[in-house]
Specification:
The structure is a single chain. This protein is of the alpha+beta class and about 180 residues long. It has one domain: Thiol Ester Dehydrase, Chain A, CATH 3.10.129.10. The chain contains five helices and seven strands; from the N terminus they run H-E-H-H-E-H-H-E-E-E-E-E. The strands form two sheets. Strands 1-5-6-7-3 form a five-stranded antiparallel beta sheet. A two-stranded antiparallel sheet has the order 2-4. A hairpin with a 5-residue loop joins strand 6 (about 150-160) and strand 7. The longest helix is centred in the first third of the chain and has 8 residues, at about 35-40. The protein starts with 11 loop residues before the first helix and ends in a 7-residue tail after the last strand. The model has no long low-confidence stretch (mean pLDDT about 90).
Length: about 180
């Protein structure tokens, strides 16, 4: 069986040793800003003054303009590339967003796909907030599906601002697996 070109390869014992552990932490390279909120709203043709007008946001009890809650995902992801990464060579494998249960937890699996995501929001995201996402492996449930033998990995992502306030908690389920061997080919 070939190892994936991405992610950590390891045994089920190594994977299970990560349960309950912090497996990743990313901090947005940029604070939340009005221009990004506007660009997020425009393609959706979503008009809500809480996301664009300070006076209206303050009149409704907020201290400033708030970002749509789901921008926690946008701002909780670290940079895809940094200058210290160097330049890519022709034919490189594209970089992926940081999903620690895929890339940072060792497991004997070559493929993966997301099966569910649930998110609960707690506090508003304000212009100027610096968002950090801390990922913890909550569980591993081994199972064989039609696509192959593997396991469901549950990752819990906690999004906080620079003051340590919890903005959101997301649960992401990823199925990591090995496809069945094809006979006779």
């Amino acid at each position: 069986m070939s190892q994936p070109s991405w992610g950590k390869w390891g045994s089920w014992e190594e994977a299970e040793a990560c349960i309950g552990q912090i497996i990743g932490e990313t901090r947005s390279p940029d604070p939340v800003e009005l221009g990004a909120i506007r660009r997020w709203l425009e393609p959706k043709e979503f008009d809500c003054s809480l996301h664009t007008n300070r006076q209206i946001a303050k009149a409704h009890g907020y201290r400033d303009v708030i970002a749509p809650n789901t921008m926690a995902f946008t701002y909780g992801i670290g940079p895809y590339w940094s200058p210290e990464d160097g330049l890519s060579e022709p034919g490189y494998e594209p970089r992926q967003i940081s999903i620690p249960v895929i890339f940072d937890v060792p497991a004997p699996c070559t493929l993966s796909f997301a099966t569910s995501v649930e998110i609960e929001f707690f506090e508003p995201i304000y212009v100027g907030d610096q968002i950090t996402c801390t990922s913890r492996l909550k569980s591993i449930f081994r199972k064989e599906l039609r696509v192959g033998a593997g396991a469901f990995f549950k990752q819990e992502d906690t999004y906080t601002n620079q003051d340590g306030e919890t903005l959101a908690i997301a649960h992401l389920d990823i199925f990591r697996f090995n496809p069945p061997e094809k006979g006779g080919e």
